[in-house]
Amino acid sequence: MRGVVFLGERELEIRDFPDPSPGPEEVVLEIRASGMCGSDLKFYRPRGGAAALGLVSDGSPVIAGHEPCGVVVEVGSDVSSKTAQVGRRVMVHHYLGCGDCTHCLSGWSQLCLHGVTVYGVTGHGSHAQYMKVAASTLVSLPEELSFSTGAAISCGTGTAFGALRRIDLCSDDTIAIFGQGPVGLSATQIATAMNARVIALDISPERLARAEEFGAEEILDPSQDDAVQAIRDLTRGEGADLALDCSSAPAARLASVQCVKTWGKACFVGEGGEVTLDVSRDMLRRQVTVVGSWTFSLQGQADCTEFIIDHKLDVDHLFTHRFRLEEAADAYRLFDTQTTGKGVFEL
Description:
The protein is an alpha/beta fold. It has two domains: 2-155 and 296-346, Alpha-Beta Complex (Quinone Oxidoreductase, Chain A, domain 1), CATH 3.90.180; 158-292, 3-Layer(aba) Sandwich (Rossmann fold), CATH 3.40.50.720. It is built from twelve helices and 17 strands. The strands form four sheets. Strands 3, 4, 5, 8, 9, 16 and 17 form a seven-stranded mixed sheet that branches. Strands 12-11-10-13-14-15 form a six-stranded parallel sheet, sandwiched between helices. It has a two-stranded antiparallel sheet with strand order 1-2.
């Protein structure tokens, strides 16, 4: 089979790999959709991308892609028919832990006390024709949803859903969402479906226009306006009830904390980078809560799926670009501009 390998310095290759065979507790998926995620750029951009991702046990470089969705085509000898059957439509919770610690047992295998494999980072991912995964990581994809929607739920959209749950978003809350890339745009769509008022922020006119399409009541460009003051002006001087930073930009993170009202909450989901806060002014003396939210649990992924079906959300509208696997070099070159919507490889 063919699979995408990041080389770093904005280069990648499509290489030949042996078709995978499942171990006793594993399955093989035929990948139908594999989403492109902003965190891919951490390995696509720097020097030594393949080295940063590491090698799998057979010494080959890791196949990229951690938003898998497809169909089970082969099942290991110890996998029960209740867990997986050939022909089943599935997503993957793209983390594999020990399976026995308190975090794994609660569905949070990315927090495993004994180490974690992240598919597409430290284990072969989904930018390929086939993918071998532990049967325990499978999440059903209902017939109502497309494979591309399943790919989005498997990271970006699921991450947005998990963060909004983490900060207890309620109907009629006002939330400021910084960054309208795939995760931020998903958060805008989901928060709107939860009947919240969304103030969307980004420096890209294209992404702000998309945010309006997805339900944002107000849009702001922080490069043109004082974001914190503008949000206060839109909220009778109080500030937003909640804020979510999906950008990883230090200035946006700081603004997300400063823009919430007294007793408000700010949540960081963007990976990497730093932020400097005046703890007294920005947090303590306004009783502000700052939290981090890293993706979602296995059950959270299933819950996100049900929410999307129940609210009839058009998650496929996130995708502005659809690619074949052989177009990977052009796809990531475009995605690297961070001006587009979400991209997906359809196989």
